[in-house]
Design a protein that fits this description.
The protein contains three helices and 14 strands. The chain has helices at about 50-55, 155-165, 180-195; strands at about 1-5, 10-15, 20, 35-40, 65, 80-85, 90-95, 95-105, 115-120, 125-130, 145, 170-175, 195-200, 205-209. The longest helix has 14 residues, at about 180-195.
Length: about 210
């Protein structure tokens, strides 16, 4: 499996097919080139760029989108190529085996309404939690994406999330809100405290798993 990290929370996985998770407004539309299936964790625009999705999927009705049913009204005409899933469901997307976890977005503030959020475990080894720290307790995760900056988290929670999941390696996720100084501090803390092999991949940087 080839993994390509794009800005913020967008991840592209390449195997027999191409699977893209959370192509949002902070990520590069090129992530969707040649995509076969898309996973959307939740409705927030930094995870769902409807304009880019609509443009890239134009004339390609075979491409499938998978997301929670609460996201469906946000997808416009793309609702017709969308399959809704819920926590605990298993399905196949672009040739990858996927299991959904979680259910709700992490709390930003009590005055801000909660939205649905699903984490996705791909091929039993790569876990993308979206905007949550939901632990896939029944899985042995090899590669974890860990959110490192958001209005809903603090550094200690990111560290404890990695410790709870116990992956072999962890890559930074949800990192576009930090400047260079903040990224450096976050990287230092995560590398020192998380207990996993930790890296932050640059936009478009690829690794083979």
């Amino acid at each position: 499996m080839r993994l390509v990290k794009y800005s913020h929370s967008c991840v592209r996985l390449e195997g027999d097919g191409v699977l893209v998770i959370d192509p949002g407004g902070f990520s590069e539309p090129v992530a969707l080139d040649g995509v076969d299936a898309v996973l959307i964790t939740h409705e927030h625009p930094d995870h769902l760029n409807l304009d880019a999705l609509t443009e890239k999927l134009a004339g390609r009705p075979e491409v499938r989108i998978f997301t929670h049913d609460e996201v469906l009204p946000k997808l416009g005409d793309l609702a017709s190529v969308t399959t809704t899933v819920d926590s605990g469901e298993e399905f196949t997307a672009a040739g990858f085996a996927v299991r959904a976890y979680g259910g709700r977005h992490a709390l930003i503030h009590p005055d801000i309404p909660s939205v649905a959020n699903l984490g996705y475990l791909v091929d039993g080894s790569v876990y993308h939690p979206g905007d949550s720290f939901d632990v896939p307790a029944d899985a042995t995760v090899d590669t974890l994406f860990v959110p490192v900056s958001a209005p809903w988290l603090k550094a200690a929670e990111s560290v404890e999330f990695v410790r709870a999941v116990k992956p072999r390696r962890a890559f930074a996720l949800h990192d576009s809100l930090l400047n260079d100084a903040g990224l450096g501090l976050s990287d230092s803390l995560m590398a020192r405290l998380s207990g996993a092999e930790y890296r932050r991949l640059g936009a478009g940087q690829a690794v083979t798993l």
